[in-house]
Design a protein that fits this description.
Blueprint: H1 3-6, E1 12-16, E2 25-27, E3 37-40, H2 53-58, E4 63-66, E5 77-81, H3 84-95, E6 104-109, H4 114-127, E7 132-135, E8 140-142, E9 145-147, H5 156-168, E10 173-177, H6 180-184, E11 195-198, H7 206-209, H8 212-224, E12 233-237, H9 243-249, E13 253-258, E14 265-273, E15 276-282, E16 287-292, H10 297-312, H11 317-326, E17 335-336, E18 344-348, H12 353-366, E19 371-375, H13 385-396, E20 399-402, H14 412-423, E21 431-433, H15 437-447, E22 453-457, E23 464-467, E24 470-473, H16 476-486
Parallel strand pairs: 2-3, 3-4, 4-5, 6-10, 6-11, 7-10, 11-12, 12-13, 13-14, 18-22, 19-20, 19-22, 20-21
Antiparallel strand pairs: 1-5, 7-8, 8-9, 14-15, 15-16, 17-18, 23-24
Helix pairs in contact: 3-5, 4-10, 4-11, 8-9, 12-13, 13-14, 15-16
Length: 494
C-alpha cells in the first residue's frame, strides 16, 4: 500500500522523501522491522521509538513516522505527526482496511473480571452458532490459532492485525478486553465498538493515572465511543459506585445488572459452594435459573454481565443456560489445582485490593477449616495498594504467607515491607514472610490439614516471574502440583 494512502485521515507533514513509497508492513518495534516496512516511532514509559530509527532502517524500513525532530538517514521517507500513537492507530486501521466495521466488536473494561466476562460472552455466542475471536490478558485466539501479545490490550497495529484475522477467518464477533492504558494511549482509537461492558472500578494503576477520578475517566472513554444507533449498546454494573459516571457518558442504549440495587438484570437466591453456583435471573419480563461450576459472588457478577449482553442480543435463554452450565472455568481464575489430598488448593489472578477481597471473602465462606493465603504485590506499580492488600489478607485468612509476585526492578523485601503494615492493622494476624515464591507455596501446602483451603493469589495464569529485568519460568499451578505430589500427609496446626 502506498504511504499516501496509509496517511488518509492523519494530521501530518512530509519532512523528506517520497509520498508514493510502497509499504508492505507496519512496525513499532525496530527489532521486528521487515524489508519494505514503515517504522512508527512511538514514545513509551521506558524508552522511545525515536532512539531506534537507525536500527529500523538497517532492518529494512523504507519510511518512518515521527513526532519529534530527529535525524533520519538520507533516502528514507520521513513523516512528522503531532501524536504518533493516535496516528499509528489510524495508519493501522487504513492498512488493514478498517476490519472492525465488518465485524461486531465487544469491548469489556473494568478493574476485575474482564477476562472471565469476555470468555463467558464467547462461550454464549459460540453456543448460539456465531464464530468469534477473543483478545485479552490470556491470549488472542480464533479457532485453533492462538498468540500472546503480552498486554491486556496490545498496541493498535496488533489489534488491527487481530481484527483482520477474525474477518479473514469468517468471524462475526470480536470480544476484547480494554484496559485504561489502551484508552489513554489511543490503542483502540479506530475501532468501531458495537458493545461496551463495565465490570467494576477499584484501586489499581494509580502509578499511571494518579487518582481514582482519572482512572475512572479513562475507563469511561470506551462508553463515549458507542454511538446512539440501533444495534449498539452498553452493559453496566449497577451495583458499582461508578455506575452513574458510565451511564452519563453513554449516549447509546444501556442495560444495568447487579444483585443489590434496582437494575435491569438482577440475580436473586444466590447459592454458591466449592462445587459451583446457582442463582435466578430476574428481568422486567422474565426469570430463569442459572447453574454453573464457577464459584463465588464475583462469578455471579461476571455471569450477569454476559447474560445482560446475551439478552440485549436477544439470544434465547436456553442457549445462555446451556453455555454457562458447560463452562469449567477460566485459566488462573479461582482455578482449583487437581490433587488427591483432602484439602483444596486454588490459584487466582487477584492482584488488586478489591480482587483479593472478593476471592478471600468467598473463600472464607467456603472454607470448612482454615484459610491459608499466599500472596505478594507487583513491583514498579501502585505502592498505595500494598498495605490495603495486606490488611485484607490479615482480615480473612487464618494464616498468611507474604512472598514475591513480579518484583520487576524493585527489591522484593521492600515490597513486602510495604505490605506488612496492613497485616499488622489486624489484631492477632498470623503471617510469615518467605520472599522465595516456590518456598512460600511449599510452606503453605506442607502445613495444610484436612478441609483447609489454600489460596495462591496474584499471578493466576502467568507462567513467569519478572525479576531484575529477567523473565523466569514460574507457574503457580505447576509448582503447586509438584509440591502436592511430595506431601506425605502431615500438617501443621499453627
Amino acid at each position: 500500500m502506498r504511504l499516501s494512502e496509509l496517511l488518509t485521515g492523519v494530521d501530518f507533514q512530509y519532512l523528506q522523501g517520497l509520498d508514493n513509497v510502497n509499504i508492505s508492513s507496519l512496525h513499532f518495534d525496530s527489532r521486528k522491522v521487515l524489508p519494505g516496512g514503515l517504522f512508527l516511532c512511538v514514545p513509551g514509559q521506558l524508552t522511545d521509538g525515536h532512539l531506534y530509527i537507525e536500527q529500523a532502517v538497517k532492518n529494512g524500513a523504507v519510511a518512518v513516522v515521527v513526532e519529534s525532530d530527529v535525524p533520519v538517514p538520507e533516502g528514507i521517507t520521513c513523516v512528522k505527526t503531532t501524536n504518533a500513537r493516535k496516528s499509528m492507530a489510524r495508519i493501522a486501521a487504513n492498512f488493514y482496511d478498517h476490519p472492525s466495521t465488518q465485524l461486531r466488536v465487544v469491548g469489556v473494561t473494568g478493574t476485575n473480571g474482564k477476562t472471565t466476562v469476555s470468555h463467558l460472552i464467547q462461550i454464549i455466542l459460540e453456543e448460539y452458532g456465531a464464530k468469534t475471536g477473543i483478545l485479552g490478558t490470556l491470549y488472542a485466539r480464533i479457532d485453533k490459532w492462538q498468540k500472546e501479545y503480552g498486554h491486556t490490550t496490545p498496541e493498535s497495529v496488533e489489534i488491527q492485525e487481530f481484527l483482520n484475522m477474525v474477518r479473514q477467518m469468517s468471524g462475526q464477533w470480536a470480544i476484547m478486553e480494554v484496559s485504561s492504558h489502551a484508552l489513554e494511549q489511543f490503542r483502540v482509537e479506530e475501532i468501531d465498538f458495537n458493545v461496551a461492558i463495565f465490570t467494576n472500578l477499584t484501586q489499581d494503576h494509580l502509578d499511571y493515572h494518579g487518582t481514582m477520578e482519572e482512572y475512572a475517566r479513562a475507563k469511561s472513554k470506551l462508553f463515549s465511543m458507542i454511538p446512539a444507533v440501533p444495534g449498539y449498546f452498553c452493559i453496566i454494573n449497577g451495583d458499582d459506585p461508578s455506575c452513574q459516571l458510565f451511564t452519563s457518558v453513554c449516549s447509546a442504549s444501556y442495560y444495568t445488572y447487579g444483585i443489590n440495587n434496582e437494575v435491569d438484570i438482577r440475580a436473586v437466591n444466590v447459592d454458591t459452594s466449592l462445587k459451583g453456583t446457582r442463582f435466578e435471573v430476574k428481568t422486567a419480563h422474565k426469570s430463569f435459573p442459572i447453574e454453573m461450576s464457577l464459584i463465588g459472588i464475583f462469578s455471579v457478577y461476571n455471569a450477569l454481565a454476559a447474560i445482560a449482553f446475551a439478552l440485549a442480543q436477544e439470544i434465547p435463554v436456553e442457549i445462555i443456560q446451556t453455555a454457562l452450565h458447560k463452562i469449567q472455568g477460566v485459566p488462573g481464575r479461582f482455578e482449583q489445582v487437581e490433587s488427591e489430598e483432602d484439602f483444596t488448593v486454588v490459584v487466582d489472578y487477584a492482584h488488586t485490593p478489591d480482587g483479593l477481597e472478593n476471592i478471600l471473602r468467598t473463600s472464607r465462606e467456603l472454607a470448612e477449616n482454615r484459610l491459608i493465603v499466599v500472596f505478594g504485590c507487583g513491583g514498579d506499580r501502585d505502592r498505595g495498594k500494598r498495605p490495603l492488600m495486606g490488611e485484607i489478607a490479615g482480615k480473612y485468612s487464618d494464616y498468611c504467607i507474604i512472598t514475591s509476585d513480579n518484583p520487576r526492578n524493585e527489591d522484593p523485601q521492600k515490597i513486602i515491607n510495604d505490605i506488612i503494615p496492613g497485616l499488622e492493622m489486624i489484631p492477632d494476624s498470623r503471617y510469615a514472610v518467605i520472599p522465595d515464591r516456590r518456598e512460600a507455596i511449599h510452606h503453605a501446602i506442607q502445613m495444610a490439614c484436612p478441609k483447609d483451603l489454600v489460596i495462591i493469589a496474584g499471578k493466576g495464569h502467568e507462567n513467569y516471574q519478572l525479576i531484575k529485568g529477567e523473565k523466569l519460568n514460574f507457574d503457580d499451578r505447576k509448582v503447586a502440583r509438584e509440591i502436592l505430589k511430595e506431601k506425605k500427609g502431615s500438617c501443621n496446626l499453627i
